Amino acid sequence: MECLATKKSRDHRKRFHRDDSCPSDEGSDPPLKKQRSNNAKKSARDSETLEMVLSREEAHKIIKEKLGVEMPDCFYEVWEFCRSLNAEQPLDALKSAGLTLVGPYDILAGRFTGKDLSRASCLRHCRYFYDPPEFQTVLQGNKRTGFHIGYFRDDPDSLPVFLASNKAEEGYHISPQGENLFAAIMLYIAGELKSTGSKDPSKAAALKGISKQLKEWLESSKLDIPLENKTKKMKQRDKKMVCKLFHGAGLVVPLDSNDVGYREVPETPGDLRKMLKSVMAAATDAERMQAFEPIQELVTLVQFANDECDYGMGLELGLDLFSFGSEYLHKTILNLLPLAYQFLQRDLFGEIITAHLEDRQKGSKLSVV
Description:
Layout lengths: L43 H6 L6 H12 L5 H13 L14 E2 L3 H4 L10 H6 L10 E6 L6 E6 L9 E6 L7 E2 L4 H16 L4 H21 L10 H9 L28 H13 L3 H23 L4 H13 L5 H14 L3 H12 L11
Antiparallel strand pairs: 1-2, 2-3, 3-4, 4-5
């Protein structure tokens, strides 16, 4: 039987890949920094966080070098929107709504400039405890709950398939939040307004203010961007999912005409959680080794699946073990995921999971700059 091969076509991607979900105006790309006025205060904070004079092409090159991915147009358009609100501190432009721009936005703000950072450190930047390699944080919210919003990709060589959120202090669940970053921000604001209600009039006013400014900016910029929670493209992806995974965002892997490429883990999610809880509950190393035996049997089955080109099984098991969050599973995760990503030609994700597990941190203080 001929093995499944994941076919890539990188030649069709231009340096500025135009994504239908994040359209932008034609013409030359505007610089990412508004020139400082002669009267601008040169405080230490200003010198650290003011944007660099970067064209979009230059920003794209640095992000690709540091983080290994391309960002969609809506990423840069949100940056321009935030600059329109706060030219000197665009990272804080949404602070009145409870959001801060982080992750790759720190590169646009010049916070990586002059820093001697290892590749692994860059890949760990703003990576929350339960963030799988497919998730890339760009907005940080409530630190008490660990709320954050990020792009979700099925493949590191492709643009994101949707935006998603997670509350790291509450668990591993990932919730899709629209097809583009503007939609994610609007959905966040709607949710905050619903929960706030009349309890905090000043917060509600701030949220409504940001919402109004964002809608006006989109209208004036003539950006026709879908703001619904679930778009047609997202529904089409749902049909391609081979399983939901513990985190709920789903797994998509390429299948050939004979459905070669994936076979399910032969345990229900509930039974797999029970196995993992037994490992966690073990009082001694001997008990833990015994509790681990059923999991080792699954790993053996993954090896058989790999031999027959069903690489999705190892990816499913590895990501579920990662979501469970136990350090006792890290060694097994590293035996499963980098290899699965290699087989699927998603090598960057293998690099990310390796870097993450080298220093997997809880909390929200996850910046490396």
